[in-house]
Amino acid sequence: MKICLFSAKRYDRVSFDTRNHALASSGLKDIELDYFDTSLDAKTAGLAQGSDAVCAFVNDDLGASTLTELAGFGVKAILMRCAGFNNVDLDAAARLGITVYRVPAYSPEAVAEHAIALMMTLNRRIHKAYQRTRDANFSLEGLTGINIFGKTAGVIGTGKIGLAALRILKGFGCRLLAYDPYPSDEAKAMGVDYVNLSTLLRESTIITLHCPLTPENTYMIGRSAFSQMQKGTLLINTSRGKLVDTQSCLEALKNGTLGGLALDVYEHEKSLFFEDLSAEVIQDDVFRRLSACHNVIFTGHQAFLTEEALQNIADTTLANAVAFCDSKENGNEVTPQVVDNS
Ligand code: NAD
Question: Where is the signal peptide, in residue numbers (predicted)?
Fold first, then answer.
């Protein structure tokens, strides 16, 4: 079997080559991996000619026209090396006879721990302190944070990652609120109170997003949500960029509703993230204005990036490929009927 990997970085090659070598040594399957740094879209789909499957990532374009091109080149399976699949046209894939797989849970802790790292950085101004101390500026002016202990944390989406975040926040001694159409027994057992979205927005000092992006919840955090929040709310998004209307974040930062904003995902990240643009002029004015705020921090969609997660992603993706080869269902298939597109 031959798999063409798009948007492949050095760390992807290392993890996939290592795990594929282990698979081959066990005599289970002989899989050929072809890596391309370029992202996937209808124009680059031709690179997959001669491949049985394509392995893609969060910002690749798997819309109907790309999938049609891929099907024309003989590609029969899409192996998403991530949990989300909001960038795949599942109806088109089904129509074209392409099976879509994903990696549903490679390391919920990796993402949750990153969300908490962002929360702590934002709250205790670590990003500013780091810059200052490098300049031998040891002034503490403007570095005052708040105790997380005793504060109310609101978690939106209590699936695998939301639960991992709740476990950590419980350790901090927070009052825990959650909003999810499908409440979790594990969260309830932890003492989490499920409330409606308005109550969560009104009562939380810290809000962290852990739900998938769907057409229904696009911009769920926008002007109306900000109008319900307390002054000085800390907002963390490690889920998907379009859950947050970033234009209205600027307003919420200016009027003090947001005391801090930490984004690992950004609605227009496709033209920015995963590339070194340090020698270029960024054309995205909203991004530039946000980056200029002292209480906004970005990371470039790196919440998943731990050694453990990379190994799990490679292992599960290769297992998905083997299941496809053997025509065996393994539960990681994504069909248009799957509602929760995490
Ligand atoms: P999951 O399927 O285990 O949980 C998602 C939860 O969200 C479910 O409980 C679901 O009921 C809930 N939900 C669905 N729609 C909702 C809504 N409108 N409001 C509130 N809750 C809603 O998924 P997961 O593994 O916890 O992943 C969550 C998301 O994290 C993924 O969809 C993905 O977008 C994002 N993610 C980001 C990274 C990263 O590196 N930044 C990595 C992995 C996943």
Answer: none
Average confidence score pLDDT of the chain? 95
Task: Show Cβ contacts of residue 267 under 8 Å, excluding neighbours closer than 6 positions.
Answer: 241, 242, 244, 245, 246
Which atom from ligand 1 is nearest to the alpha carbon of 220?
A: 18
Both structure tokens of 293: 């705020």
Residue whose CA is closest, atom 37 of ligand 1?
A: 239
The pTM score is 0.92
Task: Give the residue among 175, 161, 146 at the shortest CA–CA distance from 114.
Answer: 161
Q: 161 alpha carbon to ligand 1 midpoint, in Å?
A: 7
Question: How far is it, in rounded angstroms, from Cα 338 to Cα 101?
Answer: 12
pLDDT of 29 over the 80 cut: no
CA-closest candidate to residue 15, choices 78, 101, 93, 107: 107
Q: What is the ipTM of this complex?
A: 0.99
Give dist(CA 115, CA 133) in Å, integer. 24
Out of 275, 301, 308, 333, the active site residue is 301
Residue pair 295/301 in contact (Cβ under 8 Å)? The answer is: no
Count of other CB atoms within 10 angstroms of residue 340: 12
Of 19, 210, 240, 267, which is the active-site residue?
240
Residue 319 has pLDDT above 80, yes or no: yes
Task: Decide if 210 is catalytic.
Answer: no
Strand partners, 236: 208, 262
294 close to 128: Cβ distance less than 8 angstroms: yes
